[in-house]
Amino acid sequence: MKIDVSSLDGKSAGSVELSDAIFGLDPRQDLIARMVRYQLAKRQAGTHETKGRADIWRTGKKMFKQKGTGSARHGSARAPQFRGGGRAFGPVTRSHAHDLPKAVRALALRHALSAKAQAGELVILSDAHAAEAKTKVVLGHLATLGLSNALIIDGAQVDAGFSMAARNIPHIDVLPVQGINVYDILRRHKLVLTKAAVEALEARFK
After folding, report:
1. Does residue 141 sit in the same domain as residue 66?
2. Are residues 162 and 61 in the same domain?
3. Is 169 helix (H, G, I), strand (E, B) or coil?
4. What is the pTM of this model?
5. Residue 18 to residues 3, 25, 118, 189, 200: CA-CA distances in angstroms?
6. pLDDT at 151
7. Is there a contact between 75 and 64 (Cβ–Cβ < 8 Å)?
């Protein structure tokens, strides 16, 4: 599929031929959903934890005699039903990550790229280099391109000035091509790829 290329100033910079194997697939929502679930689960800290009855320091003396009180036969003040006792079935530190085959992850990324292309939410830039590392200048460029909520993917090296200038702009993310991922693609309205990013992606999925 052929798509027009724009410069950062909003002027036409020719066109580029995109691979149908990456940008021309019929998007599968199930694959994309699996990948988003995988990403969100993997980034959970999993550091929530409460103290169980084995973690509570309290005397081990029997609370009262076994028989004759008319009460239940309790043996420990650390039991969950007592004030100051341990938590029953509380959360413990663990990893929330689960496995997803590498082939499925790669396929999900291609389907996410195809979904953006199919929805008309894909923009190709000749490059993403700012003449001045100023937020106001970059904001003007983005306004010219009609971008207010976008993920911008550059080549292997992101222009430091452009990245720093865009850092203060809400709803704008700038990543190198190695950092491209399904979740970030979907959470922004527009996906902006530089020609260097397109070449890197086509080399990656060749």
Report:
1. no
2. no
3. coil
4. 0.84
5. 7, 12, 12, 20, 12
6. 97
7. no
> Does residue 24 sit in the same domain as residue 123?
yes
Spatial contact of 27 and 182, defined as CB atoms under 8 Å apart:
no
- Residue type for position 182: V
Q: What is the CATH number of the domain that holds 161?
A: 3.40.1370.10
Residue 126: which domain range? 2-44+98-204
Q: How far is CA 36 from the centre of its chain?
A: 7
User: Do residues 198 and 104 both lie within one domain?
Assistant: yes
Burial class (CB in 10 A: 0-12, 13-18, 19+), 112: buried
- Which of 90, 115, 144 is the last residue in one of the domains? 90
Give me Rg for the CA atoms of the chain: 27
CA angle 26, 32, 34 (to 5 degrees): 140
How many Å apart are CA 32 and CA 27, to the nearest integer?
A: 8
Tell me what pLDDT residue 131 has. 83
List, for the chain, all residue ranges whose pLDDT scores fall below the cut of 50: none
Q: Are residue 112 and residue 179 in the same domain, yes or no?
A: yes
pLDDT of residue 10: 87
